[in-house]
Amino acid sequence: MRKIIVLSFIILVGVMQAPGGPEEDPTGGFRYGGWSAPYVDDFVNGTMGEQVSGSSDFLLGRKTFEIFASYWPHHA
């Protein structure tokens, strides 16, 4: 059995969203998409790189799957 490692971008008030752009998920009138991008630094990039470099599978939520499903078929 393998471990499941969770990578999340979350702030203290409970907003959890990927580091995409403002249009990423405006559900419910959410206007702050992409909020984490200005805070990404070498440490964050290194940590994320380590976490995903050895991954061979991803367990995605529905919305993230929908984003990935529209992207990956068109890229090598």
Q: How would you summarize the topology of this molecule?
A:
Elements: H1 42-53, H2 62-71
Uncertain segments: none
Shape: globular
Number of strands: 0
Quaternary structure classification: single chain
SSE order, as H and E? HH
Q: Specify the structural class.
A: mainly alpha
N-to-C span: 30 Å
Largest sheet: none
Helical region count?
Answer: 2
Helix content: 25-40%
In angstroms, what is the radius of gyration?
Answer: 14 Å
Mean pLDDT: 80
- Please indicate the percent range of residues in DSSP E strands (runs of 2 or more): under 5%
What keyword list fits this structure?
76 residues; mainly alpha; 2 helices; 0% strand; globular
Q: How would you summarize what this structure contains?
A:
By secondary structure, the protein is mostly helical. It is built from 2 helices and no strands.
Task: Report on the architecture of this protein.
With 76 residues, the chain is mainly alpha-helical. Helix content is 29%, strand content 0%. It contains two helices and no strands. It has helices at 42-53, 62-71. The longest helix is centred in the middle third of the chain and has 12 residues, at 42-53. The protein starts with 41 loop residues before the first helix and ends in a 5-residue tail after the last helix. The mean pLDDT is 80.
